[in-house]
Amino acid sequence: MDAFRKLSLLLADVDGTLVTRDKVLTERALKAVHSLHDKGIRFAITSGRPPKGMAMLIAPLAIDTPVAGFNGGLFVHPDLSIIEEKLLPFDAAKQTVDLIDSHGLDSWVYAGNDWLIRDLKAPHVDREGRTVQFGPKVVRAFDDDMLLRAVKIVGVGDDLDRVRQCEADVQKALGNRATAARSQPYYLDVTHRDANKGFVLDYLSRELSIPPSEIATIGDQPNDVLMFKRSGLSIAMGNASEDVQRQANVVTDSYDHEGFAKAVERFVLHD
Q: How large is the average pLDDT for residues 114-137?
C-alpha cells in the first residue's frame, strides 16, 4: 500500500469511531475533519443510526455529502430530505422478528421516521434515545403495516453469545434477501440486502465521482469490513476486535484515546 496515495474522501462510521464511548465528538476530532475540508478532502458518515440520529453531527462537521443512515438503507441530503430508501422485503422482515424473538432478544423496528419498540424498559432503549436524541414509539405488536415499511430491524440483548448466534442464524435463514451484521456487540442490524456499508461506499463513489481507490474508510465493527474491502485505504479503530483489525490496512488508537483524530492526522493528512 502506498502510504501517500491520493485520497479524495474519508468515509467514517459513527459509534465506536467518530465519537467516544460517551457519544462525544471531541474538539480534536472536529478539528481533524475541518482540516480535511481545508485540504480538499471530502468527508461522509455512515451508521446503523437513523439519519435523524446523526443530525447533531452535520452542521459542526460541515458535512455536504449524502448521509447514509441504517447502514445504507436510507440516504438523505444534509437537510435530512430523502434521496433514496431501501425497504426490507416483507417476508424477510417478518421472519427476522420471529428469529430475534426465538433467541430471547428484543426487537426494534425502524419504519419511516418511527423507531418502534414493544418494551420501554428493554436493554439499551434509554441509551439509544440519548444517542440519537429522539424517543421510540411503544406498540403492542409489530403489525403488517409496520413491517411493510421497515427499513431496519434490530435484535438487542446483553447476552453477547446469543446476539452472535442470532446473527449467524438470521444470515443463514435470510440468505441474499437481506443483510444481517452486528453494528455493536449487543445490536444485530438487519437491512435490505443492498443496505450495507460496502454499498454505501459504491454509492458515494458513483454520486461524487470519486474512484474507490481514492476513498479512505474508518470503522470498528464487523459491518465496517465490507467498506474496508472496497476502499483504497482502510483504517480499523483500536477498540475493534482482532478480526476486524486484521481486515484493515492500518490500525489507529481507540475511540477513547482520540483514535479517529489520530488516524486522520497520520494516515490521511500525513501531518
A: 93
